[in-house]
Amino acid sequence: MEKIAPGAFSKSLSDVGLLWSHDHDRPLARTTSRSLTLRDQGRMGLWFSADLDPSNPDAALALSSIGRRETVGRSFGFRPTKENWLEPEDYNALPERTILEAELFEISAVIRPAYPQSYVDVMRSDNAANARRRLIEKMEREHKLRGIR
Asked: Which band of pLDDT confidence, cut at 50, 70 and 90, is reported for residue 129?
């Protein structure tokens, strides 16, 4: 059994990427570009908000899949830097690992998360609607330039 202690990621939130299914070749957002915001909320867990660029095909896929509730889980890649092991008295039981501190590298939208209580969802906002409108306008301009009706 594995647990993550409240605040375990609080020291490593400055350079974290949001990926599509742990694929480092498919970045969706990043804290250093300010398109990803992370907050370690103690017992409530790790909260995030991402401003995805709908002109990025992977971001468009993520928005669609999450919006339709096909992808609902969230996972993360990390390296434990401080942990505690509790050996059970029952020989047949598994030891319990508690991650006290960890270096967080990435979070990912996934179909099957290791921790089922973690999830992703799409929040609609004026920014998202404006981004979609700008993308459609850009595509229409490009089609017009190419003579596509």
From this structure: low
Q: Which two tokens stand for residue 133?
A: 């409108």
Per the listing, tokens 């609902």 go with 72
The domains of the chain are located at 2-122
Number of other CB atoms surrounding residue 13 within 10 Å: 16
Paired sense of beta strands 2-4 and 96-110, if any: parallel
Contacts of 79 (CB under 8 A, 6+ apart): 102, 103, 105
Predicted confidence (pLDDT) at residue 135 exceeds the cutoff of 80:
no
Tell me the pLDDT tens digit for each residue of 75-112: 999 999 999 999 988 888 889 999 999 999 999 999 88
Residues in Cβ contact with 23 at an 8 Å cutoff, skipping those fewer than 6 apart: 108
Q: Is residue 17 within 8 Å of 106, Cβ to Cβ?
A: yes
CA distance 107 to 58: 15
pLDDT of residue 8: 93
- C-alpha to C-alpha distance for 136 and 132, rounded to whole angstroms: 6
pTM reported for the whole predicted model: 0.74
- Give the SS3 label for residue 137: helix
